[in-house]
Amino acid sequence: MATLTVTPLADGAHTLALSWLSEDFGARARQAGLRMVQGIGLWLPTGPEDFAVPDLSVVDHGFRDAHVQKNCYAPHVFRMVLEVTSSNWADDLGTKVDTYAQAGIPIYVVVDRKHGEVLLYTDPRDGEYKTRTPYKRGTSVQVPDSVGFTMELSVDRLLDGDLDGAVD
């Protein structure tokens, strides 16, 4: 008998944050000639079978030309990745920080719901991010223009998933 392992379902705030980002952020990415995608495979340089599936990614328009294998794409087409923490929050704050830096992902955003902040990692060099900037509630994260467009993201909206601040 086969065993099926399923990732735990995201809660309402998690899915709402990704939904509004898909609408607002995705429209801005399209205007800049980029694509905002959810659940796309990112091929990693850490091992022959290593890949990650970020919650949200901003990729070059022609990302499909960078297909590696197993529905994963080469790191060089990723402009930014974003993770919204769930029950596996330690991976988003530890392993993925190191791994995404090693892959050279220019910008990594972590919506850290466990600690109530948003973390912006930039400037990956020598396998680590040289800059880590935390943002608290009541502030906004400025998407770096190196993504290809600028936009402010409300920390409260990222953490709560909606404008009214209701938590599921």
Which SSEs are present, and which pair or pack?
Layout: H1 12-31, E1 34-38, E2 41-43, E3 51-52, E4 56-60, E5 72-73, E6 78-84, H2 89-102, E7 107-112, E8 117-125, E9 128-136, E10 140-142, E11 152-154, H3 155-160
Parallel strand pairs: 2-5, 6-7
Antiparallel strand pairs: 1-4, 2-3, 4-6, 7-8, 8-9, 10-11
The helix fraction, in percent, is: 10-25%
Low-confidence segments, ≥5 residues, pLDDT <50? 2-6
Give, in order, the helices and strands.
HEEEEEEHEEEEEH
The biggest sheet, with number of strands, parallel, antiparallel or mixed sense and barrel status, is: 6 strands, mixed
Sum up the overall morphology in one term: globular
Strand order of the biggest β-sheet? 1-4-6-7-8-9
Overall pLDDT metric: 86
Please tally the helical runs, counting DSSP H or I stretches of 4 or more residues: 3
How would you describe this structure to a colleague?
The chain has 168 residues and is α+β, with helices and mostly antiparallel strands. Mean pLDDT is 86; it is low at 2-6. It is globular and about 40 Å long. It is built from three helices and eleven strands. The chain has a six-stranded mixed beta sheet, with helices on both faces. A three-stranded mixed beta sheet has the order 3-2-5, with no helix packed on it. A two-stranded antiparallel ribbon has the order 10-11. 24% of the residues lie in helices and 32% in strands. The chain has helices spanning 12-31, 89-102, 155-160, and strands at residues 34-38, 41-43, 51-52, 56-60, 72-73, 78-84, 107-112, 117-125, 128-136, 140-142, 152-154. A hairpin with a 4-residue loop joins β7 and β8.
